[in-house]
């Protein structure tokens, strides 16, 4: 079977290319457009963003001439522009998901409800959907996967994001017959459960990033959500609520991820976790009960066993997304998808004391952070998934800092798309 680069080259040699529709021209979207513009056999033909100047700047920064950027919210005009080898800039999300010429849609918004709407519309239009929106995926991904399977299209997370990079290590080891003890990622910054857009403002400004996005990394929500996506994809679970968050180097990992009975720190196997000290990498801890395999691993300087670490020291975020686009288009296969349904649940926890009648805000905000539980534990508690948190959620009673917020604690004043989809998913 041809590799992706050769398949793309063949497509270009035939005078064709994969036509990509992008929604969200922020940092992730901008990088992806520029990366794809330097590739063979692929182009971002239409991009939507609330701020049209974001789209225009993204195309210009990718080296695309202003004269070939068609600004329109009209379907007929957009189709005509693409047929003339122009690219479309629009504020109309549904234009991108419905354009007949678009083969694969990419959601780079990072907003759970919007991501759910985009995926829903894309699948209904029988197009592949690549999600750079793990928050939406862990909330309604199992339902969206079923829909996509029925429609004959691909629903997938992205290569380059940590879940996708972990999935590659898992698939590699699993295909060779190793037992996978644990998988995980490094955390880039110390855990601060009280982080919010104000406390993150100075660092965000220095990095040129969103304070809310940075706060969602600092308070651990992003890590919880990412490992939730991995759990749903491979059937693993957190070893304890919120995971362990061990400290250590890559060399320490094989011994850390042993059962406590073996001198390690685990209560069980087949777990997801994160480690402070190995960022920005991802890892898989593998083992074998075969004497010859262990002898070969020792010869290959993989360690003395019985555990070994597979470590990837980088992930290129949206710059790798084109690989997921191509895999969906050529092979009709996902990079990572919730094969096992809901194995974990990232639930909302009060970031501070919250008053009766107070409205929640959003991921990376001032009111809540996410904590990963096993799915059955979350169901028993009636815990509110973090992906359902938005400005329409009102507290019916006061919540103490550090307490899990339940469905019984809240009322939804305006039911959004992601709430409707989650209700459908829970009903089976």
TrEMBL record:
Superkingdom of this protein's organism: Bacteria
Q: Which Pfam families match?
A: DRL_cat (PF21135), NAD_binding_3 (PF03447)
- SMART domains under this entry? SAF
Which InterPro entries does the entry link to?
Asp/hSer_DH_NAD-bd (IPR005106), DRL_cat (IPR048423), NAD(P)-bd_dom_sf (IPR036291), SAF (IPR013974)
Which residues does the UniProt record annotate as the domain SAF? 345-411
Q: Which CDD domains does this UniProt record tie to the protein?
A: SAF_DH_OX_like
Q: Which SUPFAM superfamilies match?
A: NAD(P)-binding Rossmann-fold domains (SSF51735)
Recorded GO MF terms: NADP binding; oxidoreductase activity
| PANTHER family documented for this protein | SAF DOMAIN PROTEIN, STRU PROTEIN
> What is this protein identified as?
Predicted homoserine dehydrogenase, contains C-terminal SAF domain
């Amino acid at each position: 079977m041809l590799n992706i680069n050769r398949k793309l080259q063949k497509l270009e040699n035939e005078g064709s290319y994969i036509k990509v529709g992008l929604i969200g021209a922020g940092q992730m979207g901008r990088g992806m457009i520029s990366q794809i513009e330097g590739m063979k056999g692929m182009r971002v033909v239409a991009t939507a963003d609330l701020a049209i100047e974001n789209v225009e700047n993204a195309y210009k920064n990718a080296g695309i001439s202003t004269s070939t950027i068609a600004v329109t919210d009209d379907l007929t005009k957009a189709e005509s522009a693409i047929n003339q080898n122009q690219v479309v800039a629009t504020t109309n999300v549904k234009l991108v998901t419905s354009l007949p010429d678009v083969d694969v849609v990419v959601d780079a918004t990072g907003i759970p409800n919007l991501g759910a709407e985009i995926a829903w519309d894309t699948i209904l239009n029988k197009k592949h959907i690549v999600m750079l929106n793990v928050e939406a995926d862990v909330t309604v991904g199992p339902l969206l996967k079923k829909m996509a399977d029925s429609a004959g299209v691909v629903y997938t997370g992205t290569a380059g994001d940590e879940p996708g990079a972990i999935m590659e290590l898992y698939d590699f080891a699993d295909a060779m017959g190793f037992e996978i003890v644990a998988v995980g990622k490094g955390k880039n910054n110390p855990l601060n459960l009280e982080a919010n857009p104000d406390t993150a403002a100075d660092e965000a400004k220095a990095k040129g990033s969103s304070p809310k996005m940075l706060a969602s990394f600092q308070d651990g929500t992003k890590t919880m959500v990412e490992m939730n996506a991995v759990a749903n994809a491979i059937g693993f679970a957190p070893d304890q609520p919120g995971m362990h968050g061990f400290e250590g180097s890559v060399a320490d990992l094989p011994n850390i991820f042993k059962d406590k009975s073996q001198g390690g720190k685990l209560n069980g196997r087949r777990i997801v976790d994160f480690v402070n000290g190995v960022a920005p990498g991802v890892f898989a801890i593998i083992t074998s009960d075969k004497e010859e395999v262990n002898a070969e691993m020792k010869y290959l300087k993989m360690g003395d066993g019985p555990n070994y670490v597979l470590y990837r020291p980088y992930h290129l975020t949206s710059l790798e997304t084109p690989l997921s686009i191509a895999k969906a288009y050529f092979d009709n296969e996902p990079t990572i998808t919730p094969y096992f349904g809901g194995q974990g649940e990232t639930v909302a926890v009060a970031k501070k004391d919250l008053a009766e009648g107070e409205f929640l805000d959003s991921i990376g905000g001032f009111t809540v952070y996410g904590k990963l539980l096993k799915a059955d534990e979350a169901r028993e508690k009636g815990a509110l998934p973090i992906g359902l948190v938005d400005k329409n959620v009102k507290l019916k009673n006061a919540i103490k800092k550090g307490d899990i917020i339940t469905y019984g604690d809240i009322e939804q004043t305006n039911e959004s798309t992601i709430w409707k989809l989650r209700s459908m998913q829970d009903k089976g």
